[in-house]
Design a protein that fits this description.
homodimer; mainly alpha; Arc Repressor Mutant, subunit A; DNA-binding
Chain lengths: 121, 121
DNA sequence: CCTATAATTCGCTATATGACGAAATATAAT
DNA sequence: ATTATATTTCGTCATATAGCGAATTATAGG
């Protein structure tokens, strides 16, 4: 029950659902997710941590950068079903569609470039 | 997105998950759910209302009694998948198994009898 | 009509959560 | 070694939520 509740609660926030979508079949470093959401680094990092703790995200550290992506085939059936449910439910959603545009813009920039811009704020 | 978030948030509480389970393939009146959870009537009613608002529960009024049950085949695919996910995930859960015992005990009493007992508290 | 009662709504309190900026940590580059 | 920088952790605030009891609503029965 605890594991299940951790997953549901991790999904019970709109920004975290948007994160799941932008990390579907793609890995992004934290600064890219920060740019995508438009939230503070600390807030974004917390969201990622909650999703990771619930096993909805895999993470990989590469030097100074940390990359996240949605859980792969190693994930438990409960997690797999959760992701399938979310992705099925919001395929046509306005916000998610808009997010796809935002994400493309973010992807056009290299992480290095992005972090430099964020440092200037 | 709003509908989806309403569903996820409705599921993001352990007592509400327990309610979903006890109303699976079975309709119960509010006083039975009160007894099942052991929470105050006002609290229980709020939980039921949240689940109903999210379309996870159907309700039917019969005189003074209100009966709830999990959403039937008319429900949207998103709701159906949500229920299938929950029910699949917790089939073996300790709490849910214990709840089955509790529920049997509750079902042995008639609603009328039950309400009378609750009134005395 | 009036009373009893099943359920809901309201007002309140305690705790949980999301947001931020500042400080800390960890790694790369000089 | 020292500095720069990507990320996380910590402290704080504002808002959201779960819980209760009291008051209200709606229906059944006298």
């Amino acid at each position: 029950m605890r594991d299940f509740m951790e997953i549901v609660k991790a999904m019970a926030d709109e920004n975290r659902i948007r994160i799941l979508y932008c990390l579907k079949d793609r890995e992004l470093c934290v600064c890219q997710v920060i740019e995508f959401l438009g939230l503070a680094p600390s807030t974004t990092s917390k969201h990622l941590s909650i999703l990771h703790q619930a096993r909805l995200l895999d993470s990989q550290k590469k030097g100074r950068w940390v990359y996240y992506r949605t859980a792969g085939p190693d994930a438990s059936p409960v997690v797999q079903q959760a992701l399938a449910w979310v992705f099925g439910a919001l395929e046509q959603d306005k916000q998610i569609q808009a997010d796809r545009q935002t994400l493309e813009a973010v992807l056009r920039m290299e992480p290095e470039e992005l972090c430099k811009i964020q440092a200037e704020r």
